[in-house]
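Moderator note: this is an archived Q&A kept for reference. The question asked for a predicted structure of one protein chain; the sequence and the answer are reproduced below.
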Amino acid sequence: MAFDFDFDLLRELTEASGVPGYEDRVRDRVRTVFDEAVDEVRTDAMGNVIGTVEGSGDYEVAVAAHMDEIGFIVKHVTDDGFLKVDALGGWDPRVLRAQRVRVHTQQGDLTGVIGSVPPHTLSEEDREKEDAVEDVVIDLGRDAEEVDDLVSVGDLVTMEQSTVRMGETVTGKALDDRVCLFAMLESARELEASEATIHFCATVQEEVGLRGAQALGVDVDPDLAVALDVTIASDIDGVSEDKQVTRLGDGAAIKLKDGSVITNPKVTRRLRDVAESEEIPHQLEVLPAGGTDTAGFQNTNGAKPVGAISIPTRYLHTVTETAHREDIRATIDLLTAFLDSEDGSHDYSL
């Protein structure tokens, strides 16, 4: 099934490794796209990348999507050559058993596995024990001396997974938030001459507290900010409709709130108006918990009107995150149409 967007770029972004604070590989790819799509590219001290399209007026809009993915950092190498790690971002430990990982060392990337004791030897007490990230042990398949030579405390660990088409969806690791980063880059490429100056911001360290966006909000001082992030789509068997948040295939999600922000109602209304006038499939999002870069801009450098567009995604914070091709396309279209119509004439004051 043909996808009407650059799937190869999406695959490159999602398969790249980049935990909070170490987004280098993703940042390099973002810069390459920006070089062809924007007027100016710069990187700040934290590693945020800003691609600016100069408008004909003096109104400025910031768009943000984060580059980092959840992962781990090595905190200890045991005498037997196994790795103990500390989490970078919020993991559900239930999904970690027996997963393949990539350990990023000074001498190159190493494949490893997160060990899992066979059920045959577990006691009843062990069977009932809840999984915890601090119990994760990584096996590199090497003897202790070789591991000690290759791996150091501070080396990074990401999940090893490919990104593939699955029916009408895309599935893989790090769709949070690379699928939205991709949508932002595609919008930058598709945007025609704009009256507003648009700052496309690829941010860092979102998964550990929106740190990149908060710092960027001091440096970039827009009149309006719009963030892109994935949101929960628990439209699967066994989840009641009131807890599904969004549904795959129903369009881009216009955020009303999450655990970090209540979006400006006038910005939200404008997003809805644009979606309706352009006949772009969309749905509304009320996310009970979790934060996004939207909050990073809302009250940094003074209060700012903020809005957010989300891509519905199943199985968040796993290695099989799944998004629908039509929701991805709708998000690109909505962001582009919204930015194209921003000329400073819309009043977002409350």
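Archived answer notes: The mean pLDDT is 93.
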